Amino acid sequence: MKHDVHGSRLGEVVDPEDIGTSPGDNPTMGDVIAERLSRRDLAKGLLAVSAIAAAGPAAALPAVQRTPYRPNTTPHFRFTELAAGHDEDDHVAEGYDADILIRWGDKVLSDAPAFDPQNQSAAAQAKQFGYNNDFLGYIPLARDPHDPDWCNGLSEHGLLVVNHEYTDADLMLPVASPVTQAVVDIEMAAHGGSVLEVKKHSGKWHVVHGSPYARRITATTEMAISGPAAGNAKLKTSADPTGRKVYGMLNNCAGGVTPWGTWLTCEENFNGYFSDPSASLTGHPNEASFRRYGIPGNSFRWDTFYDRFDIKKEPNEANRFGWVIEIDPFDPTSTPIKRTALGRFKHEGAENIVNRDGRLVVYMGDDERFDYVYKFVTEGKVDRTHRARNRDLLDKGILYVARFGADGTGTWLPLVYGQGPLNAANGFASQGDVLIETRRAADLLGATRMDRPEDVEASKISGKIYVALTNNSRRTAAQVDAANPRASNLFGHIIEITPDYRDHAATTFTWEILVTCGNPLDPAVGASFNPATTENGWFGMPDNVAVDSHGRLWVATDGQNADSTGRADGLWALETKGPARGTAKHFYHVPTDAEMCGPRFTPDLETLFLAVQHPGEDSSFDDPSTRWPDFQDGVPPRPSVVVITKKGGGKIAF
Ligand code: FEO
Ligand code: CA
Ligand code: CA
Ligand code: CA
Fold it and tell me: Considering only CA atoms, which of 224, 248, 505, 234 is closest in space to residue 338?
């Protein structure tokens, strides 16, 4: 999410990461599933599924995870660099096509009406592609496993799972103010996610209409709550005395895809949906916790029509948001599950890797100034042969928070009830309590206060982990530390972590800063790109990262001020190996006022899916700063998924 948005129609300026509530006293396929899903199995409601290859054909064999990492085999990027710039359109490097796959308002369900910007409704929106696409996950649909070319099929036919993070009524709707229930209902229907079946035909991708997988998830979809916090008294509401059932997911930013082909989607700035018209927390049963999470956020004012968003009328509803949700995209009737074991905070993403011992390790950032980097290690092992056996794997395990030492070492600190300060004296009576107040628990452990952790992703080739820290204008010179070395860090940095023993379950690691971002020609900025980086190649505000199937790192940005940096947000390739390490190269940029989200490659590296979020943000329906991608009078800008392919075919940047 852009860092200075929300609530413009309410006349407020709300910065969702501007809570800064962390206390100041801390030290500062790849994995293929052997089962295959046939339409017949789906129709029968079976869980058999296709292959999942987050990392490509080479890594698509289970053996890859068991062999040593190959740290020196990463090829360099080969493409003609795009000129940095900004205008009303998007641009890709020469020799590549950038096609629109789907736009906000396009059909997802087969009975969805055509998009009509002048006559929108919640009923239509609930069947159409939602607003502000962010995370993109590609889950291959295997062809006949006996077909010798089936691996190629993995990259030409799959499910695309998409987060719809948030809405901007002023830009979406002809008349957004005053807030009416009809507007709120449209907003709620435009949140959530979409499952799309996508297919490549004659070199071009399209959405398969009438697909049995097609699904829209919204702010009112029924979800289950599982794991240690399920049933906790703090999750009980008048509508749900069990503390195990909740409606909707909110502000879903980045995410991940599990090796068993489920979609992890992460609630980020959930605080903005919970309101208190009197803006008073004094005496509230969740007072301390709410202050730490920035509740009430008062961004959306859905409380005007729905009591559950009023923190006085329904004091625990906000505790039911801020989680990682697991969704089975192969079964459109499945109930999404909020997995509480992974903690509650402003979750950015949930990229994951199968550790060499078979356990799944999920890396996560809490995107707030001075908040933390986390990982979750499952207790059980990933079962590569029986998909259903992984169903509850994410309910048991240990959540850790990172402490970065000044000497380049680091420690993962376990958030386990009863250990250290996580006990009754500090208000924790169970592991569920620890998870509901993950931030406060991490404060007590002395985690390192970071410069807004966004995406955290491990390379399945090298085993290194990349942490995008987007910026932190509030860090003072007195608050600088080794892992966050710049005061007033406007442009962010990227940290590379190496797990000790190359074991992602290990509790110790080493780390170094890969790049500090910003214009290297401005000495005041203190950027540290490789000198081979051109004037087009540097970037700031790293957000989503993607490690492709050859282990190469791509960085998407959010929040570069085009007027001051001369560049729109976009996608940069960043070398991590050898003498070229730290060299960045510009590949794609978004239209006016958009951010770049969701970089996701197909396993064969011939397709790159990108999400263009909030084009035209901070302008209005009547006078938008761009009308991308339609450029038609009366049609507002439309957040859209873009497909990048090489002209004439072939691997991207090879
Ligand atoms: Fe939704 Fe932290 O970006
Ligand atoms: Ca961001
Ligand atoms: Ca983000
Ligand atoms: Ca990522």
Answer: 224
| Ligand 1 atom closest to Cα of residue 268 | 1
Q: Which residues surround ligand 2, an ion (CB under 5 A)?
A: 543, 558
| Of 35, 20, 32, 4, the residue nearest 386 (C-alpha) | 35
Instruction: For the chain, list the domains and their CATH numbers.
Output: 39-646 (2.120.10.30)
Residue 310 to residue 274: CA distance in whole angstroms = 6
How much distance in Å is there from the Cα of 555 to the middle of ligand 3? 11
Residue owning tokens 């989607």: 265
Whole-angstrom Cα distance, residue 573 to residue 585?
5
How many Å apart are CA 53 and CA 56, to the nearest integer? 6
As a whole number of angstroms, the distance between CA 256 and CA 362 comes to: 9
Query: Which residues sit opposite 204 in a β-bridge?
Result: 201
Distance, CA 545 to ligand 4 centroid (Å)?
4
State pLDDT tens for residues 627-645: 999 999 999 999 999 999 9
Q: Is 432 exposed, middle or buried (0-12, 13-18, 19+ CB in 10 A)?
A: buried
| β-sheet with 570-574: strand ranges across | 91-92, 584-589, 570-574, 553-557, 542-547
Phi, psi of 517 (to 5 degrees): -95, 170
Report residue 146's pLDDT band, with 50, 70 and 90 as the boundaries: low
Show the tokens assigned to 502. 């190359």
**DSSP single-letter state for residue 345:** S
User: Would the pLDDT of 8 be above 50?
Assistant: no
Is the CB of 367 within 6 Å of ligand 1? yes
* Predicted confidence (pLDDT) at residue 257 exceeds the cutoff of 60: yes
Examine the pLDDT at 36 and tell me if it is beyond 90.
no
Q: Tell me which amino acid residue 314 is.
A: E
- 237: closest CA among 340, 339, 314, 296? 314
For the CA of 470, the nearest atom of ligand 1? 2
In contact, 171 and 594? CB cutoff 8 Å: no
Q: What is the dihedral of CA 156, 158, 164, 165, to 10 degrees?
A: -80
d(CA 30, CA 101) in angstroms, rounded, equals: 25
**Distance between CA atoms of residues 16 and 299, nearest Å:** 9
CA angle 4, 482, 466 (to 5 degrees): 65
Q: Which helix (H) or strand (E) holds 495?
A: strand 493-499
> Would you state the structure tokens that stand for residue 201, as one six-digit string?
């035909």
Q: Count Cα neighbours of 147 within 13 Å in the Cβ-side half-sphere.
A: 10
* pLDDT confidence tier of residue 44, bands split at 50, 70 and 90: very low
Neighbouring C-beta atoms of residue 288, cutoff 10 Å = 11
Q: Which two tokens stand for residue 96?
A: 């590549």
Check if 597 has its Cβ closer than 6 Å to any atom of ligand 1.
Answer: no
Q: How far apart are CA 447 and CA 541, in angstroms?
A: 23
The DSSP secondary structure of 403-431, one letter per residue, reads EE-TTSEEEEEE--TTSTT-SGGGT--SH
**Which pLDDT belongs to residue 175?**
78
The encoded tokens of residue 135 equal 């995370």
Whether residue 323 contacts residue 347, with contact meaning beta carbons closer than 8 Å, is answered with: yes
Closest CA to 99 of 617, 649, 610: 610
pLDDT of residue 65: 39
**Residues whose Cβ atom is located within 5 A of ion ligand 3:** 253, 543
For atom 3 of ligand 1, the residue with the nearest CA is 1
In the reported structure, the alpha carbon of residue 597 is separated from the centroid of ligand 3 by a whole-number distance in angstroms of 7
Helix (H, G, I), strand (E, B) or coil at 515: strand
| pTM of the shown model | 0.91
